[in-house]
Specification:
Layout: H1 2-13, E1 18-19, H2 34-37, E2 46-55, E3 71-80, H3 86-96, E4 106-110, E5 113-115, E6 120-129, E7 132-143, E8 146-158, H4 159-167, E9 176-179, E10 194-196, H5 197-215, H6 218-237, H7 241-260, H8 266-293, E11 320-328, H9 333-354, E12 362-368, E13 371-379, E14 386-394, H10 395-398, H11 407-416, E15 424-428, E16 431-440, H12 445-458, E17 479-486, E18 489-490, E19 494-495, E20 498-499, E21 503-505, E22 514-516, H13 523-529, H14 536-553, H15 564-571, E23 577-583, H16 593-604, E24 607-610, E25 616-625, H17 630-656, H18 660-664, E26 671-673, E27 677-678, H19 679-694, H20 701-712, H21 721-725, H22 732-740, H23 745-753, H24 768-787, H25 801-814, H26 823-831, H27 840-860, H28 865-871, H29 878-891, H30 895-910, H31 927-942, H32 949-956, H33 960-969, H34 977-994
Parallel strand pairs: 1-2
Antiparallel strand pairs: 2-3, 3-8, 4-6, 5-6, 6-7, 7-8, 9-10, 11-13, 11-17, 12-13, 14-16, 15-16, 17-18, 19-20, 21-22, 23-25, 24-25, 26-27
Helix pairs in contact: 1-3, 6-7, 6-8, 7-8, 9-12, 14-15, 16-17, 19-20, 19-24, 20-23, 20-24, 22-23, 23-24, 24-25, 24-26, 24-27, 25-27, 25-29, 26-27, 28-29, 30-33, 30-34, 31-33, 31-34
């Protein structure tokens, strides 16, 4: 390990990095060292590399856990401004460590980073070596609440992980840290062949873990926190950002010690975070000011390169093939297909608008994590010619009485570059003008493309966007190259500092990673010849076929039906899928299956292998990106999974040492939100809301007892070590730990089902206790967060409120015994239990939010827009709304129903809003009035209080003929005010009878 640190230092020093020293106080990450935290701010260039012992008290494990340490070693690199080839420089550092990049599977896997406490965030990746996360690679976007310009690249190596993988050891203590100590001449010190990590640091790890978890004095550390915060404040007032930053770090460490001791409550946590965040922001702003006052001694790296000359444009003699490739650093998997569709749509629209595409033209799209490709065949060589009418002055003002051109006409002709004699009479907008018809020769295809393509590239956007050292561009990840070929000719265009050409990029490990493409039709073939499959469909087929074949060889199969989402993610993580089968110790099968599969899917993107009875087998399939040494990659991934399962086993055993009640005590240390309290507070609210809902539904004695007990344990597993490590196991571990503690099966089931459904299409609670808890959970979440102004905005939904609203409507729709629980009533019930005031407008907004989710759900099920809008008045009762939508879909095919709709719409159209129902039959003057009144009275008396749509339809068809006759024979808007008011009041009564059934106006 010592040698590895020396090699990394040398590698980056050779690339212009200053070699800095570790921070001389405890930091949780290399990011907090002022060589990063402060130096990324402002316009000055900066390259630095250093080793940083990173102290995280909460990761203390007494040295027992093979992968968790209270002090781990990071190697930190900052490149400012980002150089454009940081990934290649990084891969060179791995080679410097002796890693054979062609033998191993090295991948960049999406992992965005944020530190709200520092006001810092960036986008980037985890770097995987044979499935093991070894590095965090981030394009810094903001620090200290300040937007960074220029953008820096931060590369953070996890040294213990890298060395465990390189040395093939399974515990950090077994890492060979340094060469041995030679025997002393004439002394008693024996020769030591090597010094292990455990020998060098094992005692430190144990004793500091003891201190952080057991012996740290809480009162002393509280005093230290206050002292350090006050000193940071004093240094800020003295305009000294460097010592102020140092004391913010000391303050943060004191807080982390208190947190590890379990001494931080919810309110205290929120206040401490706010205090440290405020200090960090002030430090950042002051540093920027001070560097400006010093005149930026290192220079200004925010200057931008001059614009590039795109070069001459080619011409086509006949229809040809065009290929566009936008090369990027690895996109997040969910952005790959979306971006390809966007680019293809923009290009297709532009070609159609300019007439370059015809019925013979075809457009095909391809996408991988590193490239978006569009190939257009049979593209017209140029735009069609066009004639444009150029309108000048009005004809009467263009010529004088003698017919000679006026000054207005002469000026127009001069401005247009034509002779006055060439101007004639044109008609436009019904008027006559002087003007002429100008023939516009169509532009060559290359000219059109050169104007269109920069707009497409510069207009790329994603769910989360970042900046890099390219002015004017902002996208999910940096755009690094552009290829544009029209047959065998380049279509040169420029965007920021990029110039399109004919060079593509293949695997970074290739002998020649840059490859020239001879012509547009050859692009796909060139990529495939270099081991890159641009078609997602082919990658998908290869993943499925190869993985299934590997599983079959070991008597297993892969449940691709339930692994569909994982397969799609894998397809967009690799450019050349290579399936490799790995195995793990059967002893791990004693762990709950959900733990094993969650680790495989969520953490590692492995496909689990199952036997004929669907039982999990001790095998998995990983998919590498490109050809590699299968044995080395298999061994690496098996070691990663073994370490993951060791962690999981450690957490599982640790949790089983406590009862559910004891685990639940930890909820008080988990903050929900500052204003809504801790997770313990939220658990209590859920229990209280569930008790009130239970009083409104018909629960049997056993169900009520199970609900009461499960409510008392609600959310307890969120404080378990396992769920803190793997949050997606919430509910699953509650069920497991409840069973292990001897709880009734109905209680264990309710604790699991209260987390359902986790996503659209997921299973719903099957028992009433679990369903009641699930509804109470979502009602509390929606009410509290809308009350505190935390409603989703745009794509931001940090608390999953959209998912919560969908879950609420799904349960109320499909659990019949909860159909009587109305959304509005449930939200109002939950509001009474909130620790904050819930304004009426917040409740109304929350109810509308839930209604919109129901609307979207019904649309996703295929119901026409008009039908969905017609049933939305029932959104507060999702089961009723869904049933009405289904009934409406069936009835729409009936001509008698359409007649009823038409008749009722005539009534609704004529009655002004706000008209009150009420009429006097004695004022009826026409037989048609009395006939409709008789039919109306009969239908009203026949209908139940809240009729279903079929019931209403069966009775209300009797209104169709009387309504039609009424409008034929009766003048509703009579000149006599009394008659008019009576007739409108009568029709308002009809309206009030039919309005609760549907919004009839929406039925088209």
């Amino acid at each position: 390990m010592q040698d590895a640190l020396i090699r990394l230092t040398g590698h980056w020093a050779e690339r212009g990095c200053l070699v800095a020293q570790p921070m001389n106080t405890e930091v949780g990450a290399g990011t907090l060292n002022p060589a990063t935290a402060l130096r990324v701010l402002g316009p000055e260039p900066w390259r630095v590399a250093y080793t940083e012992p990173s102290v995280r008290p909460d990761d203390s494990r007494y040295g027992d856990n093979p992968n968790r340490l209270q002090t781990h070693t990071q190697f930190q690199v900052i490149l400012k401004p980002e150089p454009g080839d940081a990934q290649e420089m990084y891969l060179g550092s791995l080679a410097a460590l002796g890693i054979d990049l062609r033998a191993h599977d090295v991948r960049f896997v999406e992992d965005d980073w944020a530190s709200p406490a520092l006001g810092a965030w960036g986008l980037g990746w985890e770097v995987w070596l044979d499935g093991l996360e070894i590095t965090q690679f981030t394009y810094f976007q903001q620090s200290g609440g300040l937007t960074l310009d220029p953008v820096s690249v931060e590369i953070t190596y996890g040294m213990e992980r890298i060395l465990m993988a390189l040395q093939g050891v399974s515990h950090f203590k077994d890492i060979a840290y340094a060469p041995g100590i030679p025997a002393t001449r004439g002394g008693t010190t024996p020769h030591t062949p090597r010094i292990t990590y455990g020998e060098a640091f094992g005692q430190v790890e144990y004793e500091m873990s003891r201190y952080y978890l057991d012996d740290a004095d809480i009162a002393t550390n509280r005093e230290l926190f206050e002292t350090y915060a006050a000193e940071a404040r004093r240094m800020l007032d003295a305009r000294l950002p460097v010592p102020a930053h140092s004391y913010v770090l000391k303050c943060s460490h004191a807080f982390n010690v208190l947190d590890a001791r379990g001494a931080i409550g919810t309110t205290e946590r929120a206040r401490a975070f706010a205090r440290m965040r405020g200090l960090a922001h002030e430090v950042a702003a002051l540093w920027v000011e001070r560097r400006a006052e010093l005149g930026h001694p290192l220079g200004d790296a925010s200057a931008r390169p001059a614009a590039l000359d795109p070069g001459p444009l080619p011409d086509l003699a006949s229809a040809g093939t065009f290929a566009l490739e936008i090369g990027v650093e690895e996109l997040p998997p969910h952005e790959v297909e979306r971006t390809a569709a966007h680019v293809a749509g923009r290009l297709e629209a532009g070609l159609e608008e300019t007439g370059l595409s015809t019925d013979a033209t075809s457009l095909d799209t391809f996408a991988t994590p590193r490239r978006i490709i569009v190939v257009v065949r049979d593209l017209e060589p140029r735009e069609p010619d066009a004639e444009h009418v150029v309108k000048g002055p009005r004809l009467a003002a263009a010529y004088d009485a003698s017919g000679a051109p006026t000054r207005a006409l002469l000026g127009f002709a001069r401005a247009q570059g034509v002779e006055a004699a060439d101007v004639g009479r044109v008609t436009a907008g019904g008027g006559e003008y002087a003007g002429f018809v100008r023939k516009v020769v169509g532009r060559p295809a290359a000219e059109v493309l050169a104007a269109l393509l920069p707009e497409i590239v510069a207009g790329l956007r994603a769910g989360k966007n970042m900046r890099w050292n390219a002015p004017g561009l902002s996208f999910a990840r940096p755009i690094r190259w552009l290829l544009a070929l029209l047959d065998d000719r380049e279509v040169p265009f420029t965007v920021a500092d990029l110039r399109a050409g004919r060079v593509t990029r293949v695997h970074r490990t290739a002998a020649a990673p840059l490859v020239e493409v001879p012509d547009a039709p050859s692009l796909l073939g060139v990529l495939r010849a270099h081991g890159i499959e641009p078609a997602a469909s082919r990658r998908r087929s290869r993943v499925v076929e190869d993985a299934e074949a590997l599983a079959r060889r070991h008597g297993g199969t892969i449940a691709f039906g339930s692994e569909r989402d994982l397969v799609e993610e894998i397809v967009n993580l690799v450019e050349e899928p290579v399936a490799i089968l790995g195995s793990f110790d059967e002893a791990y099968l004693e762990l709950p299956e959900e733990i094993l599969t969650t680790v495989m899917r969520k953490h590692q993107r492995y496909l689990p292998v199952r036997g004929s009875t669907d039982r999990l087998l001790p095998h998995f399939v990983t998919v590498a990106n490109g050809e590699c040494d299968h044995d080395a990659v298999r061994a690496g991934n098996e070691a990663v999974l073994r370490a993951r399962y060791e962690d999981a086993s450690f957490f599982y055993r640790q949790d089983l040492q406590s009862t559910p009640e004891e685990i639940k005590e930890g909820l008080g240390r988990l903050t929900f939100t500052e204003r809504l309290g801790s997770m313990a507070d939220r658990s209590s609210r859920i229990a209280a809301i569930a008790a009130e809902i239970a009083d409104r539904v018909d629960l049997a004695g056993g169900e009520r007892a199970a609900l009461r007990r499960a409510a008392g344990l609600a959310k307890f597993d969120l404080a378990s070590s396992m769920v803190i490590e793997l949050p997606s196991l919430a509910g699953t571990m509650a069920r497991e730990y409840a069973r292990r503690a001897g709880e009734d099966e109905a209680v264990a089931r309710a604790l699991y089902e209260m987390e359902l459904p986790r996503a659209a299409g997921d299973a719903l609670p099957g028992g009433l206790p679990g369903a009641v808890l699930a509804v109470a959970d979502r009602l509390d979440l929606l009410t509290g967060l809308f009350a505190t102004g935390s409603a989703p905005t745009g794509s931001s939904d940090p608390f999953g409120l959209r998912r919560a609203a969908l879950a609420l409507t799904a349960i109320l729709r499909d659990v019949p015994r909860l159909a009587a629980v109305a959304v509005g009533d449930g939200l109002a019930l939950a509001a009474r239990h909130q620790p904050v005031e819930v304004p009426p407008d917040a409740l109304a907004e929350a109810e509308r939010f839930v209604a919109r989710r129901l609307e979207q759900s019904l649309l996703d099920e295929g119901h026409p827009v008009s039908n969905v809008r017609a049933v939305l008045p029932h959104a507060g009762a999702p089961a009723h709304a869904a049933r009405a939508a289904a009934d409406l879909a069936r009835l729409r095919s009936s001509s008698r129903f359409e007649d009823l709709v038409t008749a009722l719409q005539r009534v609704l159209r004529i009655v002004p809003d706000g008209t009150r129902a009420g009429y006097d039959p004695a004022l009826f003057a026409e037989p048609a009035e009395r006939a409709l009144d008789e039919a109306f009275t009969r239908v009203r008396d026949e209908l139940p209080a809240r009729p279903a749509l079929p019931e209403f339809y069966a009775a209300a068809t009797a209104l169709v003929a009387p309504i039609d006759t009424y409008f034929d024979d009766v003048m509703v808007m009579d000149e006599d005010p009394a008659l008019r008011a009576n007739r409108l009041g009568f029709l308002a009564a009809v309206r009030d009878l039919v309005a609760p059934v549907l919004d009839w106006r929406e039925i088209a």
